[in-house]
Amino acid sequence: MISLSPLQTLKNVEFRNLLTGRFFIVLAFRMLATLLGWWVYHLTKDPFSIGLIGLSEVIPAVSCALYAGHVIDTNEKKKLLLICTYAYVFLIALLLIPAFFNDQLHLTGHEITYFIYAVIFVTGIARAFIGPIVPSMIPKIVKQINLPNAITLNQATFLISSVCGHAAGGFLIEFYGIKWTVLTVVILISISSIFFWQLNKQFSEQSKGSVKVMESIREGVSYIYKTKEILGALYLDMFAVLFGGAVAMIPVFATDILKSGADGLGLLNAASDIGSMIIITTLAMVPLKKNQGKILLVAVAGFGLCIIGFGLSNYYWLSFMFLVMSGVLDGISVVIRGTIVQLKTPDHIRGRVLSVNSIFIMSSNEMGQFESGLAAKLLGAVKSVVIGGSLTVFIAVLVGTTNPRLRKMQY
Q1: Which tens digits make up the pLDDT trace of 321-331?
Q2: Model pTM?
Q3: How many CB atoms are located within 10 Å of the residue 12 CB?
């Protein structure tokens, strides 16, 4: 498929508003992730407690994801996006209570931790809906000829905001404390809603009662199962990142092994996203021309090797560079996976397919955070990361040898 230049795609005002809104909301989410990992670890001094943050969110998110896909495909998308955004504003604002008023409330560290888990559990429901909505809106905002560039620019925006969010979160914690960081997150999510209001309404091609919920869900799952390129890409995403989730243990490495403060934590958290941002911006200008399936498999295997290197390093800047390189390789796989899913999915089931995609993403990220916390508690942080990276390499080899359609995939 021949596409126009990225600059041509960005001339679309509605697409720019979507990307800008996503920038601010992802910026807030990444600041929050950095904050919660630091906050909970310093309340409990237990790496397993960090893993429970991911578990608290992923249980409701995965449980609601298939139904969310049906709702997205049968409802007006702009309204759903705004509802989810304001739900996040309200829920994260609840964290201001222990952040600002604990001197009056006298909550213990464990009580604050349980309160955080409860809030994040409820945000998981909103996460099930908001995750697939933005990518499902893109094909109706941009022309088909611009879709590959739009997908890449969407990923680039995500990673730029992710880098800024992780880094800014660490610096805000270091210089202004937890409470002002929470307040900043609430303000940034509110700003994102301003840009989402500028979007046009996107009505469903299906009426709410025209398709039964279970039939709708079954159609989406069946399509993914039959489309081996999508299925293989999702397996790679879930299992590779599930086992290679070293980022979840960065608070432990930063505090106990590399001996850096909150600012060092923020930079380490941002390292992989810096690498991803560089490569995705490059790919937006110079897209991959052929052999995308093989490149995807090599990138995932290389990602696993970088995670092993990070786990074995005792030097801050060497650890940082391993994470940057892991981000470069992950960025390549993100672009290829995202393009495969979008190009292979018809519009009428896009919400359901992307919701299943979000299950794999959440399973890899949040369950990966839980798995990393549990493994670190049982094996120690270093062994858990090295074993996880090794399993990631194994998964890449296994998928490559058992899924020839993905291996030969070109778009």
Answers
A1: 999 999 899 88
A2: 0.73
A3: 16
